[in-house]
Amino acid sequence: MDNPFLDDGPDHANRLADVAGITAILQQAAREGRAMSYSEMLMTLGFRFTRPKMRALCKTLDAIDTEAEQHGEPALACLVVREGDGLPGQGWWVSRHDYAGAWEGSEARTYLAQHQQKAFDYWSNK
Questions:
Q1: How buried is 16 (Cβ within 10 angstroms: 0-12 exposed, 13-18 middle, 19+ buried)?
Q2: Which GO terms describe its molecular function (predicted)?
Q3: Is residue 7 part of a domain?
Q4: Which of 71-94 are b and which e, b meaning 16 or more Cβ less than 10 Å from the residue's Cβ?
């Protein structure tokens, strides 16, 4: 019997690098108008939360946003946030070329909410 929380196996790396699969999960979250924590996303993919797994997921999130931009779609990585404060991790902020503010606090929350709303609006009818 397969254990969905067993972190190894033949498709281990593939699940974390599955751009199409993770995109579909994020598109559904956007349709539902909600963000997901890193832990929730990893659990959805069949993993316990670990920092190495989170870093691998973040690489895939970057690829998803690059692909979305190429298709004229809003970013989806903004929907994956930390449980503690509801904000994305450092990597997401570093990749923002139009934002130079703090990565925490009300200004960051406002900036994030604008990006999340774009995703919610875009995917709500698709």
A1: buried
A2: kinase activity
A3: no
A4: eebbbbbbbbbeeeeebbbeebbe
Distance CA 33, CA 23 (A): 15
**Amino acid of residue 5:** F
* Structural domain includes residue 2: no
Strand, coil or helix: 36? strand
DSSP β-bridge partners for residue 80: 36
Q: Is residue 101 part of a domain?
A: yes
Domain encompassing residue 92: 12-123
Which pLDDT tens digit goes with each residue over 34-83?
999 999 999 999 999 999 999 999 999 999 999 999 999 999 999 999 99
pLDDT in tens, 10-22: 566 789 999 999 9
How far, in Å, CA of 15 to CA of 25, rounded? 12
